[in-house]
TrEMBL record:
Keywords associated with the record: Endonuclease, Hydrolase, Nuclease
Pfam families associated with the record: Uma2
Molecular function in Gene Ontology: endonuclease activity
Protein name per UniProt: Uma2 family endonuclease
Domain spans labelled Putative restriction endonuclease: 16-181
Stored SUPFAM superfamilies: Restriction endonuclease-like (SSF52980)
Length: 185
């Protein structure tokens, strides 16, 4: 197996199939418009925020929806592939053989901003998820104890952006109520 960072300069843009050769070394390998993105494993603070958020969402999610981690969202042309911190999708996909979710299957994607690479979640993934039509994208920002809720995607980005603090409630992808003070504890 060739290490992806040591392979010869590609003759074409990175595609999903190229990720099959990446090492299982704890790093996250993603692609945006054919460019490889490599990020290190998250620190404990990031993990703790994600853990608390996932537990709260799972406790309120209906049985037909999955609140999952480590499942990527793949653009149809295979030149963009993101692995959100959390993704919510229909449970019937658990019995499928898809290697990654098509963007239309993701009801909600959530990214917890890491201090080491905030622009990936705040700019790059924001544009990427909107471009492929992910209906709602949450950017969780522990440093300011808020969640940006982005909705109504379009080719130029999300049309709705709301910043939430304290108690947060909504109906997409299911009715929920979250105490952000618990998540950011």
């Amino acid at each position: 197996m060739t290490h992806p960072l040591l392979r010869p300069q590609p003759l074409r843009a990175w595609q999903f199939e190229d990720l099959l050769d990446t090492p299982d070394d704890g790093y996250r390998y993603e692609i945006f418009d054919g460019t490889l993105l490599v990020t290190p494993p998250p620190p404990m603070a990031h993990f703790a925020t994600l853990y608390r958020l996932r537990r709260l969402l799972e406790s309120q999610a209906p049985a037909h929806l999955v609140v999952g981690e480590n499942l990527g969202v793949l653009r149809r042309d295979a030149n963009s592939y993101f692995i959100p911190d959390l993704v919510i999708f229909d449970a019937d996909l658990l019995s499928s053989s898809v290697a990654a979710l098509p963007p239309t299957a993701a009801k909600l994607v959530v990214e917890v901003v890491s201090p080491s690479n905030p622009s990936t979640d705040l700019v790059l993934k924001r544009a990427g998820y909107a471009m492929v039509g992910v209906p709602e994208y949450w950017i969780v920002e522990p440093s300011v104890r808020e969640v940006q809720v982005l909705a109504q995607p379009g080719p130029k980005g999300y049309l709705i952006q709301e910043k939430r603090t304290g108690l947060m409630s909504g109906t997409v992808p299911f009715p929920y109520e979250l105490d952000l003070d618990v998540i950011f504890a």
